[in-house]
UniProtKB/TrEMBL annotation:
Residues 199-303 form the Glycoside hydrolase family 2 immunoglobulin-like beta-sandwich domain. This is Beta-galactosidase. Residues 71-180 form the Glycosyl hydrolases family 2 sugar binding domain. Residues 310-612 form the Glycoside hydrolase family 2 catalytic domain. Residues 1-21 form the signal peptide. GO terms for molecular function: hydrolase activity, hydrolyzing O-glycosyl compounds. It comes from Hymenobacter crusticola. InterPro entries: Beta-gal/glucu_dom_sf, DUF4982, Galactose-bd-like_sf, GH, GH2_Domain-Containing, Glyco_hydro_2, Glyco_hydro_2_cat, Glyco_hydro_2_N. Residues 645-688 form the DUF4982 domain. Keywords: Glycosidase, Hydrolase, Signal. SUPFAM superfamilies: (Trans)glycosidases (SSF51445), beta-Galactosidase/glucuronidase domain (SSF49303), Galactose-binding domain-like (SSF49785). Gene3D superfamilies: Galactose-binding domain-like, Galactose-binding lectin, Glycosidases, Immunoglobulins.
């Protein structure tokens, strides 16, 4: 049937038809569930009122919200049971009722009244099952139906991801819905999709063609004469086009329909700056439209786009550099079971950063995410979780294909989606016995390429209008030789030069290599990032020191290199926010902190740096917001300030800075950053930044603990000192409001160590100092991970008085762990050859032995934090002297705190 086009005058007059009550009903059923872990019982058949061992919960829920943060390696990966009493109204008896799950990780069986409704494999896509035949309705004298859901997050070699740098939280962690439709309805059995698929084969500034494909199911007992009415509505609700298609659908039949809306005039285009959405309402009618039977609504964004190997990305005919982040779907304390508002908040944060792109990594996420992207104007790529490796089995191949199909069909109508991706760094972890250059390796690479090709072909069949992408780690030849750079339409690179290995410059060179060697292949930088633990700071940042300052330098280099290369279509920072990766150790165990935001979504300086470079409205922010408790030595023996660098982020040319009302002058901003040296004084430092000619400014209050060069200084009376040994970094503890300063050598009148050297993990290719192991029994891993080895004294020439001294130790030389779990994207980097420590030493405090025979057999246990607190009196101007007397091997010290009591 031909589309009917309406004149603008008529359009404004037409409003949406009223929705009728008896159409499709969809209601969440998240409340009042019961949960228990596996105890060997089959709970599909047990009665509804379980007495013991069941926990009352509501959805979304995961059973791993807390065990992923404890000191026990691993987290529960197994079976969990959910039960719910479900009341279904009597008037649904003749309707088609479905249970719809937005996602459950990762193998799910759903039972209704003890009978299997369906099974689903894979943790990140939605699924739904028809349940009408299994239900009891409330007029049948029975109170409730019992829904039992069995969920398993065990490792299953046939289900991706096999391994990855994130946590595979188990549970019913997304919303569950009950849906009741007329027996005549839009297809409800198509991979939990909406059953209606919209494409926009031709869009220009002048006209747009819209095609609607779908299917109508007739589950009624008789054949029906029907019509599908589809209306395209603008944002105000005016109908801009509509079309009615007649269908005769036999009993039990499913019939496809297609509606083509040619040449919609002057479409209001969708773009990041103006994410204009139309709505497409499709309705099944019977008898001249008087009886609507079913209705679905889908978003419609009119835009066109292309990727070019030389010039990057174009949206609506104009070049647009795609800049944004990746995202994981977890939050502290909640695991992956987030309320929708937190999903949406992350998309808002990308928008507020000035970003226009989100790589939804490494798996499809809650439907809220794509809705928010459509609405806020964030372009996206979505991917299935084929990460690190594949299993060469029919089961694995089939699961991947099902996942890809579900992902595409479920996300099909979102205008924000421009790319479907299907692999991430698939050659990072070669399975047992497989080497790059052995025959098994060659056979494996061939299978990976076959799977990639199958997913590529499937994606083109499912959705020829989007681009495909395959994402690799920075091993160019490996992926090229395996054929993986020629299969997808876009090659994504995850590049960490200057982090896992090499120097920053290697990043730019790598991009240029891509352009040179794959001149026809569009590319994106799909990941780049550096760890930054907001508590750690350094003025001599080094690779792998996890300080915010190193991460700042990293991003400042990378973004510039990306923007300078038009052939790079876009980039996504790894990662928007810190996320849980249970097997990670390092300064904050279980957390990957390569991010622009902390786990609870507080901005790091790098977030401001992106704002300064991306926002179009005037912007200024003083960096160090998360570093409002600082410390440092006075500039000289008699000065009362300490000059330290502060970065101000702005998109304006010049910034003026004031400290406590005193002008510190102006600095030009280069690539979004103006750099100052601020003479911090003891106590409160109020910094304020202004930009000329703009009504914007910014203020930060920083508390500074000025350390006198001579501890007996009358002007700066000694109160406390916290020193991290073997460490050039500052560590601020926001909870205890304490600041730890880097170690220094003792000088008379001052404080510091005597003798020894900085601990360095033997054979570690990338750690500049210290260890990256989880130190048990503490939240202050960073303090215990560094150490001075072989010191003979630690001295403080404090004035006479009463003090408390706390010594912190952890033995860092430890036997190797079974598996090195932390990601290693460098070249043979993390090959630390651990050895068993052999040391024994005594500690004397002002001549008194306070610790005798510290050995691994007593307190000095490997990777275990231990601390000792001692009261001490400083008398006759002798200060505090700690002597470290080694009997076997060398003495060590990880941290020291000295506090004046009175
Ligand atoms: C990667 C992976 C990502 C990791 C990241 C990292 O390349 O794709 O899953 O989390 O590196 O931080 O090592």
């Amino acid at each position: 049937m031909r589309a009917k086009f309406l004149t603008p005058l008529l359009l404004t007059a037409l409003l949406v038809l009223p929705t009728l009550a008896q159409q499709r009903v969809k209601q969440s059923v998240n409340a009042n569930w019961l949960f228990r872990r596996d105890d060997g019982t089959d709970y599909t058949k047990t009665p509804t009122t379980p007495a013991q061992g069941w926990e009352k919960i509501s959805l979304p829920h995961t059973w791993n919200a807390t065990d992923v943060m404890d000191d026990e390696p691993g987290y529960y990966r197994g079976l969990g049971w959910y039960k719910k009493a479900l009341y279904v109204p009597a008037n649904w008896q003749k309707r088609s009722v479905y249970l719809y799950f937005e996602g459950a990780n990762q193998e799910t069986e759903v039972y209704v009244n003890g009978q299997l409704a369906g099974r689903h494999t894979g943790g990140y896509t939605a699924f739904s099952f028809p349940v009408s035949k299994l239900l009891k309705f409330s007029n049948e004298g029975t109170a409730a139906n019992e829904v039992t859901v069995k969920v398993n997050n065990r490792h299953n070699p046939d289900i991706p991801p096999l391994s990855a740098d994130f946590t595979f939280y188990g549970g019913l962690y997304r919303d569950v819905y009950l849906l009741a439709a007329d027996p005549v309805h839009f297809d409800l059995d198509n991979n939990a999709s909406s059953g209606v698929f919209i494409t926009t084969p031709n869009v220009s500034a002048e006209t747009a063609d819209v095609v609607v494909n779908g299917a109508v199911t007739n589950d009624a007992a008789t054949s029906r004469k029907l019509a599908v009415l589809t209306q395209v509505l603008d944002r105000e609700g005016h109908t801009v086009a509509q079309q009615r298609t007649k269908l005769s659908v036999g009993a039990g039949q499913k019939l496809a329909f297609k509606q083509t809306f040619g040449k919609l005039r002057q479409p209001h285009l969708w773009s990041p700056d103006d994410p204009y959405l139309y709505r497409v309402i499709s309705r099944i009618e019977e008898g001249n439209g008087s009886k609507p039977l079913d209705e679905v609504t889908n978003p419609l964004g009119l835009r066109w786009f292309r990727f070019d190997a030389d010039k990057g990305f174009f949206l609506n005919g104009k070049p647009l550099k795609l800049i944004g982040t990746n995202r994981h779907q977890d939050f502290p304390g909640l695991g992956n079971a987030l309320p929708n508002a937190l999903h949406e908040r992350d998309v808002q944060l990308i928008k507020q950063m000035g970003g226009n792109f989100l790589r939804i990594s490494h798996y499809p996420q809650d439907p809220t995410v794509l809705h928010a992207c459509d609405r806020l104007g964030i372009l996206t790529s979505v991917e299935i979780p084929v990460v690190n490796a594949i299993t060469d089995s029919e089961g694995f191949f089939n699961t991947c294909k099902t996942m890809q199909t579900e992902m595409i069909r479920q996300g099909f109508n979102h205008p924000s989606v421009v790319i479907w991706n299907y692999m991430n760094e698939v050659l990072l972890r070669l399975p047992e016995g497989i080497k790059k250059d052995n025959a098994a390796g060659q056979a494996y690479f061939k299978r990976v390429a076959q799977l990639a090709q199958q997913l590529e072909d499937l994606t083109h069949r499912e959705d020829p209008s989007r681009y495909t992408m395959l994402v690799n780690h920075g091993a160019f030849d490996l992926y090229r030789d395996a054929g993986l750079t020629s299969i997808p339409m876009i090659v994504g690179w995850n590049l960490y030069q200057g982090w896992y290995s090499g120097e920053f410059e290697g990043f730019a060179q790598y991009l240029d290599q891509h352009h040179r060697e794959l001149p026809t292949k569009p590319t994106m930088v799909t990941e780049y990032g550096a760890d930054s633990d907001l508590r750690l700071h350094s003025f001599q940042p080094q690779r792998f020191d996890k300080t915010q300052e190193y991460a700042n330098r990293y991003h400042q280099y990378y973004l510039k290199a990306i923007l300078e290369r038009p052939f790079v279509a876009g980039s996504t920072v790894w990662n928007l926010a810190e996320f849980n990766s249970e097997s990670r150790q390092e300064a904050t165990p279980h957390i990957n902190n390569k991010s622009l935001l902390t786990a609870d979504r507080q901005p790091k300086d790098a977030y401001f740096f992106y704002q300064a470079n991306l926002l179009k409205t005037p912007f200024v922010k003083i960096g160090s917001r998360g570093w409002t408790l600082r410390s440092g030595p006075a500039a000289s023996a008699d000065s009362l300030f300490c000059a330290q660098p502060v970065e101000v982020y702005t998109n304006q040319p010049i910034v003026r800075l004031q400290l406590n009302g005193k002008d510190l002058g102006s600095q030009p901003a280069t690539f979004g950053v103006a750099r100052f040296r601020v003479p911090f004084v003891n106590g409160l430092n109020q910094l304020s930044a202004q930009v000329e000619g703009q009504p914007i400014d910014d203020q930060v209050d920083i508390q500074f603990k000025l350390l006198p060069q001579k501890l007996a200084s009358a002007q700066l009376p000694f109160t406390e000192l916290n020193v991290s040994l073997g460490d050039p970094r500052y560590f601020t503890d926001p909870k205890l409001q304490q600041v730890w300063v880097p170690e220094q050598a003792y000088t008379p009148g001052g404080w510091g160590y005597v003798g020894g050297q900085v601990f360095k993990l033997p054979g570690s290719g990338r750690l500049p100092y210290g260890s990256d192991r989880n130190i048990l029994g503490t939240d202050y891993d960073a303090i215990y991970e560094t150490q001075r080895v072989g010191l003979t004294q630690f001295r403080l020439d404090v004035p006479d008085g009463e003090y408390e001294v706390t010594l912190h130790f952890a033995e860092l030389e430890a036997v190797p762990q079974g598996e090195q779990l932390v990601y290693n994207l460098g070249n043979g980097a993390n090959t630390a050859a651990d050895k068993k420590a052999s040391r024994s030493f005594d500690v004397l405090l002002n001549g008194q032995p306070v610790l005798s025979d510290l050995v691994t057999a007593n307190y000095l246990q490997p990777l275990q934090a231990v601390s000792f607190k001692f009261p001490v009196s400083a008398q006759q101007g002798r200060g505090i002297i700690l002597d470290f007397k080694a009997k076997t091997g060398e003495a060590v010290l990880n941290g020291i705190q000295v506090k004046r009591l009175y």
